[in-house]
TrEMBL record, chain A:
EC code(s) of this entry: 7.6.2.9
Domain ABC transporter: 2-255
Top-level lineage group: Bacteria
Keyword Signal found: no
Signal peptide positions (record): none
Official protein name in the record: ABC-type quaternary amine transporter
One of the record's GO molecular function terms: ABC-type quaternary ammonium compound transporting activity
Pfam family, one: ABC_tran
Gene3D superfamilies given in the database record: P-loop containing nucleotide triphosphate hydrolases (3.40.50.300)
Start-end of Basic and acidic residues biased regions: 1-13
Taxonomic source organism: Humibacillus xanthopallidus
Automatic annotation (TrEMBL), chain B:
UniProt record, GO biological process: glycine betaine transport; transmembrane transport
A Pfam family assignment: BPD_transp_1
Transmembrane segments: 20-41, 48-69, 81-100, 132-159, 179-200
The protein, known as: Osmoprotectant transport system permease protein
Classification via PROSITE patterns: ABC_TM1
Gene3D superfamilies given in the database record: MetI-like
Limits of the ABC transmembrane type-1 domain: 15-201
InterPro entries: ABC_transp_perm/SBD, MetI-like, MetI-like_sf
Entry keywords, A to Z: Membrane, Transmembrane, Transmembrane helix, Transport
Subcellular localization, as worded in the UniProt entry: Cell membrane; Membrane
Membrane topology: Multi-pass membrane protein
An example Gene Ontology CC term for this record: plasma membrane
Amino acid sequence: MIRFEGVTKRYGDADSGSADGGSPGEGGGDPGSVAVDNLTLEAPTGQITVLVGPSGCGKTTTLRMVNRMVTPTSGTISVDGRDTASMDVAELRRGMGYVIQHAGLFPHRTVVDNVMTVPRLLGVDKRQARSRAMELIERVGLDPAMARRYPAQLSGGQQQRVGVARALAADPPVMLMDEPFSAVDPVVREQLQNEFLRLQSELGKTILFVTHDIDEAVKLGDQVAVLRVGGVLAQLASPAKLLADPVDDFVAGFVGRDRGYRALSFAAAPELSLTDEPTVRLRATGEQVRAIGSPWVLAVGDAGEPVGWVRAAAVDHEVTRDLLHRGGTVASTAGSLRALLDAALSSPSGRGVVADDDGRLVGTITAAEVVPAIEARRSATTAGELPEGASTR
Amino acid sequence: MTWALDHLSEILTRAGQHAWLAGLPLVLGLVIALPLGWLASRTSWLRASLLTTTGLLYTIPSLALFILLPSILGTKILDPVNVIVAMTIYTVALLTRTVADGLSSVDPSTRQAAIAMGYGGFARFRAVDLPLAVPVIAAGLRVAAVSNVSIVSVASLIGISQLGYFLTDGYARSFPTEVWVGIIACLLLALVFDLVIQVVSRALTPWTRAVAA
């Protein structure tokens, strides 16, 4: 557990504060400005705590105070009950994985040597450090053949995976992550986020994660701390609670529009009766398609997986992949109400496609059928307490 | 050409002396410039004063330095140590800024990651900042090498044996061939220095040639 107690960071005073060369980062601009103001916060063991807020809210400063790259002006920070100010700084830092925006890999070292850095600094012998590094390289989803490459030979997403592997190499209980996925494109970002969640479910690290992206915060955090400019904690809550019940206008504004819809992400799809959907195979003839008697017909692949909707009138000879409508999303039976509603709304036929865990078609559902489930959930939650989602402790 | 062949052993001897007088200061100067450049790259108020001071050293005329040093060092005027010391001063003058620039050129996120991994001052210099500064430092060394080879020839005016002798002797005897031999020998020596620095630099920086696969 990482615990902040009354932590304040003021820049421009007698001490410039940032230890050996660490730049003050955001909020360090004008003299005497307060970057973090009397912050009290707990990041529980084994969970992801996300610090989110606009530029100048002191989130990066907060993160860097944990490994003492920035020295707090007042207050204490403890990790598992030990005051960080009393610890040897190198020992403190080597006990925490650190991942940053552009990965910060050492360009002059190969991927495997980068990953081996902290174990080698801790005195682990070369062979052991190497085999551990190779294991991690695979674990973060990289081809072991990349181990011999230099960072310049990797894509941004691959570099970021190496950054995560390097932070994990010494198996630190704590991970500090400063906008690790912000510099990659949205598709890669989503992949990295999903794999990060998968890794965390296996490893159970105590993670402090900084982002400016509220969607990322809500997706990754077990709890989310929203900071306002000047480093004041505005709200600390589970993502579901944050979306359902922002504490003031600032948080409501920062959490953004569509929060009613986005909150459905945290509601598991209930058991709904799905409609059996008549389907055609790929390569079905135009007559077969029109025999179903619906303007939009769902096509499935050989394993029974939905591949897309086809407009019956558009099929001349047979159903081919380039005739398929690409707009519809597929919801999973194990997914959320949001995914279910989205599948219905995005489907050209108005019938949302639902598949099982193996990706096989189970049936379809319309938006009109999803809404009562949402209404039922609302009356259940207003009767009881607000949706709490993941526990905060 | 025949003159050069007839005097080949003398040319080679003087080239060896020239290489020693220009090369040893290059190594000594680098050894001194590394800590100076490191200090300059770490402390902003030291940077300005250190770089101005070392830069100014380069403006002292070499002949003046060759003549003044014996009285400062207590050496004889013909002692090659005077030349070694003078050339070392010039090398430091050229390299301190280069080293400081090279060390400062390390990507901030790389440096930040190094700090976060618990690399302290000197360990970070040795393991991260210095290896990454090699290309910049090597570029500075190449300039210093060529400059040293050229300045050392001036030492023939105070009678210290090296390739510059052919320039002064050829001029005194109005014998252009000998002057040309001196110039070409200096040029070849500078090329050799340049080549050696490039080869060593390449060997130290395989990562700079790694391009996206």
